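JOB MANIFEST
job_type = single_chain_structure
chain_count = 1
residues = 420
[input]
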Amino acid sequence: MNEAVPSVVAIDIGTHKVSVLIGKVHAPDNIQVIGMATARNRGMNKGKIVSLDKVITAIKNAVQEAEDMAECRVHSAWISIPSAELKSFYASGRTPIENSDHTITTSEVVRALELAKASHLTSDHYLVSAVPLGFELDDSAEWVQNPIRMSAHSMMGHYQLMMLPISTMQNLDRALKGANIGVEKMVVSCLATAEASLLKDEKEYGVCLVDIGAGTTNIAVYLDGRLALTHTLQRGGEHVTRDIAAVLQTTTEEAERLKLLYGCVDLKVVKPDHMIQFQGIDGPQTISRIELAEIIIARYEEILTQVHQELQRNGAIHGLYHGVVLTGDASQIEGMVNLARHMLGVSAHLGNPPVQVHAEEQNQAALRRSQYTTAAGLLMFSQSDTQDTIVEATDPEKLTVFKRVGRAWSALNNQLKSIF
C-alpha cells in the first residue's frame, strides 16, 4: 500500500458474517477500496456473541483475506456495534437559572443533561451517546435549539439517551483484542448502514431505513437530516430459513439454498407450474415455488407488520415523505420492494449504492453487494462529522416529543455541540 495516501479499515461484525473493507482515502468523498473479504461468523446468534473463539476466528479470517488482497497489514479499524441490544430512552432534566441576571450558560446545559441521565443510567449499561432534542424555557410550549445566553428562571432539557449493556461492549472488545485489532472508533451498525444507503435529501425530508439482517431487523427513521427513532426487532432472514426447514422437513442448509435460489415474496411473479426439487430428511422431495413463496411470505409479513406498528406507535409513519429504504441481505429477496409498499403504505426502494466508496472495475460488482453495505458506511463515517447518536422515543409523551423533533433539531452552534 502507498502510505502517502491515508488509509482506513472497516470491520462489520454481523450475526452470520464478518465483512472487512480496506480503503485509500483520496478525499472525504473518494474512498478507493483495495482490500475486501467476508468470513462466516458462527459465534453469534441474533446479534449477540455466544462463542468468543468463533467470533475471533471469523474476524481473523476476514481480515487476513482482505490484507492479502490489499498487500498490507491491519492494526486498527472502525468497528460496527451490533444493534440487537441497543436501548434508547427519552429523558428530561430541569434546572433553575440561579445567576443574578438569569442568563443560561453552558453550566446549566450540562446540569440539565446530568439530571436527565441520572434517571435512566443503570450500573449494567454504558451510555453511548446523548442528543439534545430541544430546551424548554420557563415551561414555554415551544422548544429552543440553543438556550445559551438566553434568559429564563428555569430550563428543561429534553434528550434521547442511547445505551448498550456493558457486557456487550466488553465481549466485543475481547473479540477484537483476541484478533489483534485496535479500535479507531465504534459505530452502531444501523448508523453505518444508513450512512451508506440513504441520500441526504431522504434524510432531510423523512425516511425510514429497514435493515433486514440474518438475526434482527433494524429500523432507523431520519427527519431533518438527523436520526429521530431507532428500534430493533428480533426477527430476520434466519427465521425464514428455519420456517422453510420446519415446514418442508429438511436441513437448515437445504432450506437456505431453497431460499436463496427460489425465494420470492410476490406471488404475482411466480409461475403456477414451477416445481422445485429438494432433499428432505426422508429423501428427495418436490414442492411448487408458490408453496415455497407462501412459507416465506408469512414471515416477511410478520416482520413488516411489526415495523408498521412501531412506526405508527411513534407517529413516524406520517413523516416519511421519502418512504422506506430496504437494506440487508434478507431484503434482497425477489418481490420485497412491492411487499414493503403494500404492507407499509408508503413508497419503498432498495438502498442506494454509496458513490463515495468505489473499487477497481473487476471488484466493483462485489463491493455493491449488500454484505458490504455496513462496512462501506463505516468508511464513509470515518470521513464525516456525522454524530453517532441514536434516538428512540419510549416516554408516554413520545408522540409530542416526536412532533417537536423536526423543529428542535436544526444545528446547534459550535459551543453547544462541544458539550455533547
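[summary]
The CA atoms of residues 79 and 121 lie 24 Å apart.
The chain is about 35% helix and 30% strand.
exit_status = 0
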